[in-house]
Amino acid sequence: METLHFEELAVGDRFETGGRTLTRAEIIAFADRYDPQPFHVDVEAVEDSVFDELVASGLHTMAIANRLVTDDFYAHTSVMGGTGIEDANFLAPVRAGDTLSVRVEVVEKRPSASKPDRGLVTVEQTVTNQEETPVMTLRITSFFRRRSASDS
Amino acid sequence: METLHFEELAVGDRFETGGRTLTRAEIIAFADRYDPQPFHVDVEAVEDSVFDELVASGLHTMAIANRLVTDDFYAHTSVMGGTGIEDANFLAPVRAGDTLSVRVEVVEKRPSASKPDRGLVTVEQTVTNQEETPVMTLRITSFFRRRSASDS
To answer: Which of B21, B33, B105, B86 is nearest to A84 (CA)?
Structure first.
């Protein structure tokens, strides 16, 4: 597959990733290290939270989504690194056994004002579970390399 | 220490966390699992990126910051779970050997419109390295339990 550069990404372009199923052990291991709230690591403690059972850390959902998007989208592009994440909304709980996948849509692009070899592209990620319920949305902006004069 | 409930958190309140030093092995292990871009996992590949050496995934910085804030702030509060993250900006590279710490400031609070037992509090996190350089800022909104009538 040809590498998609800044020039080949257009607002409205959509991509879909494959799926990834989370286990209870993974949910607890991630939260134990990075987000050790009782409702992410302790089945008995969820009754004091807003949840009715053990749920994945929102950061874990973001991380899993990022891996899917990296494998199935970024890997085929000239991405050079991210600059920021906007409007990450945790819309529904992610539970053990859920299978997540991500829809990616290009929502904005602009050339870099100072560096002619790159441009900024914002994509919206919508993470859904196996029932097509959206569990998280976010927008992430990254630099993508432009084609050099020698490419054309 | 008394648990800080919604009522005890005021806009302008500030908290600081302890520090955490990242190793090269940790940076690579996190990225290998969740953000396998060459510039996060392969020292030789950084020259094709916007970076001049191996840097931590922005998601890794968010995760480390969240752990620090959980241990040193959330653990002393009535937090019930997060609803979203806004305006996460990756301001400077995080490299192996860097020691990160987080300043937390309460920037907004409001009662829940539908659930009288909780309120929403937005905090701004500023993550700095050992040279006091800000490497990331973000705002996160979470539910915090209110004191019940029987508490007063």
So the answer is: B86
